[in-house]
Structure formats: C-alpha cells, structure tokens
Amino acid sequence: MKIDRHGKAKILTPDEIERLFSEGLLSIRDQTLCAVMLYTACRVSECVTLKIKDVYDSKGRIRPELIIRKGNTKRKLATRTIPVLDDLRHYLKLYQPKHSQEQYLFPGRWGHGHLHSEYASLIFREGCKRVDIEGASTHSCRRTALTLMSNAGIPLRIIQEISGHRSLEQLQNYLEVEPSQVRGAIAALSMLTPPKDKGSKIDSVDWDNPKLSAE
C-alpha cells in the first residue's frame, strides 16, 4: 500500500469506488477523469492528454471505442483502442468538455494545454482523503482494473493489449494476488490427501495364511 507516495498503489474495493465517486470527487469533470482511468486501465498521463476527438465524434456522440494515441503512451509503442463501457459512458454523457484551441478532453487552466498529471493526481488523492481511503493513487485505478480482469480469467496477452505494457513480466508486476486466492490455491492441495476408511483388499490379507485370506 502506498504511504507518502512510496510502495504500490492499493487495489480499490467496490465499496471504496462507490464512495469515491459518490462523495469523494466533487465535480463531473473530476468523476469523468477518474472514470476514464478506472474503466480503460490507462495511465494518468494518457488520460490527461486525450483529445475530445479521441472520445467524441464530430457530432458530439460518444465513440464506441476510446482512442489512446501512440504519441501519448509511455514508450510510444502503439495506439490502443478501448471499448467504452456503459459505466464510463454514463460520465461521458454528463461531462461537457470545454472546447479550447488544442481541443483536449481535460483542458488546463484558462483553457491552455491539458490538465497536468500532477494536478490530476492531486484531485484523486483529495477525493480519496474525503472518504477515508488510504494508500491509493491514480495508479490504483489502473491496478484495480487490470487485477479485476486477471481475476476474471482474462488471458494475460489480452490484458496486455489493453494495458499497453511492453512485456507480460511488466504487466504481472501490476497484478495483485488476494489472500483468498492464496487460500484457495492451498486448499486445492487437499486432493493429494490419501482416501480414508475405504479399505482395500490388501488390508484384509492374513499374512500367516495368505492363500486362505485371499479366498
């Protein structure tokens, strides 16, 4: 868990997510900002550099897929397209992005440039603080989304396509193993326990007179 910005960002529970969006984040912009990160598993830097046209078409309709452009990704590896869930669509419908010269989805102060990653991180941390969520950062959205997909049995190669990680090894560092999963894995070893009280022919052999016992 992150303490003073050190350590891994915590995985958010459904209850924490509900509290964060209903009480912690105070504006539709802030809710939409965090919803994009949570429901696309994108990085905060990728989120704040989205353009309006990456999310809405020329008529203002929400696209079926959100576009994360190659130039805005961490290592500029590839453009990613992420299907827009109904949960995210809800916030995108309510959000009215302010049109600026550069047409960023989340414009910066006075409409210049885009919202800075550090300011987006501050918005998230302040929201978590209001509802008493400790150890979370914007990375929590990404880790939560990727871990939920992994726990749902989605193959890692498909999750990698969504996350944009360069390797499966990097992706695995994001995934959280829950204590219940460890207990379940150990419980599976019970199949190794020999059967009890079933008896066997060899148990009934009279070794002093093996022929008689066998009959």
Automatic annotation (TrEMBL):
GO molecular function, a single term: DNA binding
Compositionally biased intervals (Basic and acidic residues): 195-204
SUPFAM superfamilies per the UniProt record, alphabetical: DNA breaking-rejoining enzymes
Ranges where the Tyr recombinase domain occurs: 7-187
Keyword Endoplasmic reticulum set for record: no
Keywords carried by this UniProt record: DNA recombination, DNA-binding
Gene3D superfamilies the record matches: Intergrase catalytic core
Gene Ontology BP, a term: DNA integration
InterPro entries per record: DNA_brk_join_enz (IPR011010), Integrase-like_cat_sf (IPR013762), Integrase_catalytic (IPR002104), Tyrosine_recombinase_XerCD (IPR050090)
Organism domain of life: Bacteria
Annotated region described as Disordered, given as residue ranges: 195-215
Family listed: Belongs to the 'phage' integrase family.
PANTHER family: INTEGRASE_RECOMBINASE PROTEIN MJ0367-RELATED, PHAGE INTEGRASE-RELATED
The protein's name: Site-specific integrase
